[in-house]
Amino acid sequence: MSDAQTRRVQEQFGRAAGEYVASAGHAAGDDLDTLLAWGRGRRPARVLDVATGGGHTALAFAALAREVVAFDVTEPMLGAARRFIASRGLTNVRYAAGDVAALPFRDGAFDVVTCRIAAHHFAEPAAAVREVRRVLRQAGTFLLQDILGRDDAEANAFIRELEQRRDPSHVKSYRLAEWRAFLRAAGLTVMEHATVPKLRVWDDWTGRMKMSAEARADLERFLRAAPERLRAAFDVRLTEHGVESFTDFMLLLRAERD
Predict the structure, then answer these.
(1) Which end of the chain has the lower number of beta carbons within 10 A, N or C?
(2) From start to end of the chain, where are the E strands?
(3) CB atoms within 10 A of CB 143
(4) From CA 13, how far away is CA 19, in angstroms rounded?
């Protein structure tokens, strides 16, 4: 990750760590259940959770594995995850800080690597995927979840701008074909994929980033001014009092090291 992008991520998420620990959408859901089902089938001994955020994925996989490493570039977020997981009584999770493009682990160290709702912040996803492949054992498994990029170019540009106005550290959400290409180039083969809808409750979604009232008002104006076709594409729900919600999709992938 570039130095500038690292600073953006650390600034955004360092001040919002508590909100991500408390986020219901990150704590549970059909998306996490699917990743767990895929992971359970691998019977992993060691799991690496890249960009662990509030620690919910690391916590879930700690029930399956002998050891989980929760990894994040933002120290305050990693501290929040540590406190959250400790409060649940788990003792088989350890913690490490660093850049996903230069993972500080030996080759073949992990049976499973997870990365959930984070890759849209990566400056160089192809480099991150190469590192994931390196630290996986032979026939190891990469479980990825992230916001799904749209094939419709105008819809993709619209949601990208909406995301970046809310969170300047957002880089891009990738389409399935793009993820397949990144993975194939790194030596990983997609074995399964799924998409799940993700409801974004406006107050929660904007509130997690600690947006000012002025910034939230600007974001709402941008959304209301969008063409009806684009608002319909994301099932935007508006009321006379404000924005209620919108819906996008999550892409889930299970890939294996060649």
Answers:
(1) C
(2) 46-50, 67-72, 93-97, 110-116, 136-147, 188-201, 237-239, 242-257
(3) 25
(4) 9
As a whole number of angstroms, the distance between CA 242 and CA 234 comes to 16
Q: Which domains does the chain have, with CATH numbers?
A: 3-199+248-257 (3.40.50.150)
**Cα 161 to Cα 226: distance, rounded to the nearest angstrom:** 11
CA 243 – CA 165 distance, rounded (Å): 16
Strand partners, 47: 68, 112
Crossing angle for the helix pair 153-166 and 213-225, to the nearest 10 degrees:
170
Cα-based torsion angle of the residue sequence 216, 218, 219, 222 in order, rounded to the nearest 10 degrees? 160
Q: What is the pLDDT of residues 77-116, one digit of tens each?
A: 899 899 999 999 999 999 999 999 999 999 999 999 999 9
**What is the DSSP-derived secondary structure letter of residue 150?**
P
Answer yes or no: are the C-beta atoms of 189 and 133 closer than 8 Å: no
List, in order, residues 6 or more apart from 253 with CB less than 8 Å away: 142, 143, 144, 145, 179, 183, 190, 192, 193
